[in-house]
Design goal:
- The chain is of the alpha/beta class.
- It has one domain: Oxidized Rhodanese, domain 1.
- 25% of the residues lie in helices and 16% in strands.
- It is built from 4 helices and 7 strands, in the order βαβαββαβαββ.
- The strands form 2 sheets. It has a 5-stranded parallel beta sheet with strand order 1-6-5-2-4. The protein has a two-stranded antiparallel sheet with strand order 3-7.
Length: 141
């Protein structure tokens, strides 16, 4: 039986295509401020959209951000929108998709592979899967 706790997973290219096809679809990056600043951020300028940045975890305490759902709402996201969520590898964004679904958001989709993808044989990210490796628009810093 399929997991009904959120709407499912898409790879980065499928996520981009959905963002392009659905005018009201949005992307929330749930990583932390250091990741946004130093690793990079998905860019949606070509789609006339912006990535909303709301951390799922508190960076210093490494605890779930208790204000996550409220911060998403304050960012202008409505429960009737298609919401795509991305993190480094797809784990935090899956948890965030479940939390938003439980909070009444109707269609929350995890971007599997995340921004950086899985680790390669040398233990590095950014070469196996992920938004960056797929060649999708992003910026650093």
């Amino acid at each position: 039986m399929a997991d009904q706790s959120y709407a499912g997973d898409l790879n980065p290219q499928e996520a981009w295509d959905l963002l392009e096809q659905e005018p009201n679809a949005c992307l929330i990056d749930v990583r932390t401020t250091p990741e946004w600043q130093y690793v990079g951020l998905p860019m949606l300028d070509d789609l006339q959209k912006q990535t909303l940045c709301v951390s799922w975890l508190d960076y210093l305490a490494n605890d779930v951000n208790p204000g996550f759902v409220e911060q998403v709402k304050q960012g202008g996201v409505r429960p009737d929108q298609t919401v795509l969520l991305i993190c480094r590898s797809g784990a935090r964004s899956r948890s965030a998709a479940i939390a938003l679904t439980e909070a009444g958001f109707g269609r929350c989709i995890n971007v599997a592979e995340g921004f950086e993808g899985d680790k390669d044989a040398a233990g590095h990210r950014g070469t196996v899967g992920g938004w960056k490796q797929a060649g999708l628009p992003w910026k650093q810093g």
